Amino acid sequence: MLSTGNYIRQSLELHLYFTRTMKEHSFFLEAGFTPKDKNYIDEADAFRLAFDNLLFDVISISDGVVSRDLLEAGEAITPYTLDAEKASAYYTGVKIATNLTKLEEELAGDSFSRHSHEELERKVAAINNRALELTAGLIRYKSRLLSDVLSCKVFTVNYPLLIDHIMREAKLYFTLVKRLQEREDIDLEREAYEQEYFWNRIMAEHAKFLRGLLDPTEDELINMSNNFGREFDKLTMEAREAMNQSVPLSKVTDDSYKATLAIGKFKEQGTVGLLECKIKSIIVPLLGDHILREANHYLRLLKIFKRVGELE
Question: Which domain of life is it from (predicted)?
C-alpha cells in the first residue's frame, strides 16, 4: 500500500503534468472548430476553464512537496511555455491563463517537512476526485466528438487520429489517478512495459501530426518527421514484443531513451522556430511546447525505468 507521503507527492506530480495537458487538449479542440459548432466550442472552453481551476489548486499546494526532478525535467512547463501561450492566445483570441505558468515558475521542490501530512492528504484526495470527475467528462466529450467527426456530422481541423490520441492520454490520466486513490503501490517493472508501449506510440503519432501540419515546402522537416514516425513505430512494436518476453525490456528502454532524446531536441528546435516565425506551418506554438513537454515527461519515466533495470 502506498504511504501517505508518496500518495501526496505522486498525486501532485501527476496533476502538474496531466492537468495542464488536459486543459491544452481542450484549447486545441476549441480552436479547431468552425463557428457553426458553437456547442462543441463552448463545451471545450468549459473544460479548459475547469482544468485551469484544478491546476491552480494543484499549484497552490505543490510548493516544497513535489520533487526537484519533476520541476527540472521540463514536463510541467518549459522555458518556452509562457511565450507559446501568449502567441497562441494572440492567434486564436482564446484567453489563456498565463498566470498559472508564472506561478509554476516559482515552485520549489523537496522540503516536505514544512507541510502537515493530514491536511495535505485531505486536499489531495479532494483534488484527485475532482480530476477523476472532470477527466471522465472530457473522455466522454472526446469520444462523442470523434464519433461525430468520423460520421461526417462535424468538421474540425484536428485529425481524427489526434482526437483519438488525446482521448487515450485522458484515459491514462484517469487510470493513474484512480490507482492513486486506491493507494496502489505501483510495480515499476510492469509499469515500464505498459508505459513504454503507450508513449512510443504517442511519440510516433506526434511525428506524424507534425508531418501533416508543416507547409508542403518544408521538405527537410517533413523528412525528419517521417523518420521519427518510422523509428517510434518500430519501438512501439519492440515494446509490445517485450511484453511477450521476446525482446529484453532493457534494450527497448535504452533504444526508447535515445530516440526520445532526439525527438525532444527536434521538438524544442521546432517550438523555437514557431515562436520566431521561421517555420511555415499551420501549427500553433503551444502545440509545439505541448509535445515537447510530453517528450520530457517520457524521458523522466525512462530514466526511472533505466534505474530500476540496473538494480535487477
Answer: Bacteria
